What we know:
mainly alpha; 8 helices; single chain
Amino acid sequence: xxxxxxxxxTLTYGALxxxxxxxxxxxxxxxxxxxxxxxxxxxxxxxxxxxxxxxMNNLLVFHIFTLLSYVVxxxxxxxxxxxxxxxxxxxxxxxxxxxxxxxxxxxxEKLSRFDTLTLPLAAMLLVAASVxxxxxxxxxxxxxxxxxxxxxxxxxxxxxxxTGLATYAVANAILSDESIMVSAWHIxxxxxxxxxLCFGGGLMCHRVE
Length: 209
């Protein structure tokens, strides 16, 4: 049996996807991309659960998710970027990261093990983008930041990817110790649920151009 928190995490992705599709016409382009990310996460979780129940290695799914989620989230952050230079840097990072991802898969990283090189890099870049977005938001004329989707999405990404950075960077090293691995993943599932609540806050905000 898969742990309860793993199932709750998957259910929250499904609930957020439902909310996002219901509010689709009210969402600005960046938030539509966030719905796309939530769709990827939901499908990834379902597929990983299925493969786990079949006693099959599901790590290839995580490798693919790392690339696709980076492309989608960084595109959303680039639209929110206040300065043209910042926007271009974020946009340029997408093809550069894609090239690095391909090189790593062909040379260093094994698809049967955790992606301890590409995911930590993606996590650092996305956390940096979310911090910049929060900084730009603090300098804007927005008075109630909790009603702005940029605040909630940035918080969600920081929570989700900071834990991912810490977990996946040492995942292969602790893979043989089941008790440590289970404990680490329980923490990650709980924080993923908190992250999803933040994504939900972003989806419920009014449209911001």
